[in-house]
Amino acid sequence: xxxxxxxxxxxxxxxxxxxxxxxxxxxxxxxxxxxxxxxxxxxxxxxxxxxxxxxxxxxxxxxxxxxxxxxxxxxxxxxxxxxxxxxxxxxxxxxxxxxxxxxxxxxxxxxxxxxxxxxxxxxxxxxxxxxxxxxxxxxxxxxxxxxxxxxxxxxxxxxxxxxxxxxxxxxxxxxxxxxxxxxxxxxxxxxxxxxxxxxxxxxxxxxxxxxxxxxxxxxxxxxxxxxxxxxxxxxxxxxxxxxxxxxxxxxxxxxxxxxxxxxxxxxxxxxxxxxxxxxxxxxxxxxxxxxxxxxxxxxxxxxxxxxxxxxxxxxxxxxxxxxxxxxxxxxxxxxxxxxxxxxxxxxxxx
Length: 350
Description:
Elements: H1 7-14, H2 18-26, H3 33-46, E1 69-74, H4 85-98, E2 102-106, H5 119-123, E3 132-138, H6 143-151, E4 156-159, E5 169-173, H7 175-188, E6 193-198, H8 204-219, E7 229-234, H9 242-251, E8 261-264, H10 267-279, E9 289-291, H11 297-301, E10 308-310, H12 313-329, E11 337-340, E12 343-345
Parallel strand pairs: 1-2, 1-3, 3-4, 4-5, 5-11, 6-7, 6-8, 8-9
Antiparallel strand pairs: 10-12
Helix pairs in contact: 1-2, 2-3, 4-12, 7-8
């Protein structure tokens, strides 16, 4: 008796996932036309026969009428944030729609007893995991959550977060480049005392931007043998009182020691600080320059308009979905880290 040809057989010979082979055989979306052609050609050559309803074979993804979905893991704190994460999410949803995929959004947080629960039930017990094409993780999550996601066996793509211990693809902005850019720009304007307002530990992107700033200060001189000084203020970003506390500290400093240029590690911090400076009688850009990173919509309409570094937020989301499709179709390829380039947008604040 000849050996039965299964979806797993086709997947193994083509170096594809069972999901990709199943979608190709059923004529559904979610795989490229070139991949579909490869699958169909091998299936014909090996004499593969697909199970039909009522047959004794186990049901596969190809037997299901519902399209697959991408599971999007989004931190609960970021769900209502319109300037950055909602725009990244809109790019992901657009990418899913282009492929005929659905999407499901969850905010996983594991309890103490979850280690004895199957990972699918611990993360999202209400979902039909048979239709889950893969997982997109937006931003930072505890390593324990990422490990449980990996245990589901679905391909994972990290968006704007890096986890070296997890073997998965990563799509990020080049935050190091953004940090270098803002400092080099301020140095070109002859700024000598640069202040950074950040929130250590809140996000890996903040830390990467600060490293870029330090690299720029260490490697690029302002000319005539002088280098700029750099001072960091670490503030509790999500607590509004930091603005008043920092303003009080700055007013107690001698004028010749105050920064003549301020960097907000993101636009929201930069905009809040620029408004506060104006309240206490320090104008921008006459008395000091202010620059941010993100290019949120309100940066262009502030008074004065905020100089910033543009991050392609919708594109980040779309590229994450592209990476997930690639991983589905080519599961054995080396993991990838894709960095999206940034660009300076000079405006009146600096």
